[in-house]
Request: fold
Amino acid sequence: MGIVRKTKSVKILHDEFEKSLAAISVTTLIERFSAQMNKTTIYRVLDKFEDDGYLHSFLGKNGHKWYAKCNGCSSSNHSDAHPHFQCSNCGKVDCLPADVVIPKIPNRIVDVSQVLLQGKCEQCYS
Amino acid sequence: MGIVRKTKSVKILHDEFEKSLAAISVTTLIERFSAQMNKTTIYRVLDKFEDDGYLHSFLGKNGHKWYAKCNGCSSSNHSDAHPHFQCSNCGKVDCLPADVVIPKIPNRIVDVSQVLLQGKCEQCYS
DNA sequence: TTTTGTTTTGCACTCCAGTTGCATTATTTT
DNA sequence: AAAATAATGCAACTGGAGTGCAAAACAAAA
Ligand SMILES: [Mn+2]
Ligand SMILES: [Mn+2]
Ligand SMILES: [Zn+2]
Ligand SMILES: [Zn+2]
Reply:
């Protein structure tokens, strides 16, 4: 499974994620590339990028979908259990290299943890 | 601001949250009380309950809204910075009394943290 | 390079959580 | 009881996300 053909859409989206490490929301991509491709194509290409282990996805503060580059993932091995940070001032979203500290919960098994931090980013931090 | 009038809808929803400490999703409430009130009313009453510091809200794993009782909050003073736990087996969602451990991020100010843990709850933990 | 088989795309639709405007109804105040 | 105000129901709308299918693009074979 995964990307097979190097189409125009695939190249454009791939280039966009290579430009920077920041996460990008789906709605941003749809708006940004509305002249180049259909939103359905964007959803489908992102889906495949995730299958391939090239991108991972998560939900921002409104429950909307964001994508960011993986770090050493493959189609068979995803490990993206890191926190994400959304700046309340400029809206930028980043992956944080920090470890997630899972609190000890008696009689429960924790499999997945989603952590979204909000505040001021490096640029907006005065 | 907040709830002023004791209407039938307000009483029904209040009673529902008094029954148990577990969180309830908006869609569950809409389905459960479809015979008693309109979904718009449910959204509006929950909104006010949150304003009043009686309930707090958060997003579940699909980005859909959940509500749960606050613990000592008021309209002027909300402090609901605890993690939430969603059971992947039975779907139940709870507030966790544990503290959120915010990782140290250089040059960033963290104001809010959303933590959603997923796994097996007490009942589903074999 | 042309033909062939397969994948990808665009389009028009559907779905669903959540929201809004407005007329009607319920509650509170006088 | 009447007046003032707040809550409700309804229907329509919004916006993110997903689908089915015919047309277009691509890769590989001829
Ligand atoms: Mn990330
Ligand atoms: Mn909670
Ligand atoms: Zn910023
Ligand atoms: Zn469970």
User: Anything to note?
Assistant: Chain A has a mean pLDDT of 92. The two ends of chain A are 46 Å apart (CA to CA). Residues A 87, 89-90, 92, 121, 123-124 surround zinc ion (ligand 3) (CB under 6 Å). Residues 4-8, 26-27, 30, 39-40, 43-44, 63-65 of chain A lie near DNA strand D (CB under 10 Å from a C1').
